[in-house]
Amino acid sequence: MGRIGDKFESLRRKKEKALIVYLTAGDPSLEITKKLIFALEKAEVDILEIGVPFSDPTARLESRDHFGRRIEISHRSAQNF
Questions:
Q1: I need a labelling partner for 35 at 20 to 30 A (CA). Which of 2, 28, 80, 81 fits?
Q2: Which residues contact 48 (CB under 8 A, 6 or more apart)?
Q3: Does the residue 49 lie in any domain?
Q4: What is the tally of structural domains in the chain?
Q5: Distance of CA 62 to the CA centre of its chain
């Protein structure tokens, strides 16, 4: 079993629930993202998922998710990560 499976098994044995946090890398800045990662680790979140923003030229701007637009507007790309 992998780390995520191990974590769920451990929580299941203790009859606890998981705290899973999702961050969009670079939102609002790379420096803040880095600080959030370490703060969440210190706070002992169970699972941290970090999404990498990307631009889909075929997608309509109105349908893109809010954070993806914020990253796009600030001219960041996957190359910055």
A1: 2
A2: 20, 21, 23, 37, 40, 41
A3: yes
A4: 1
A5: 22
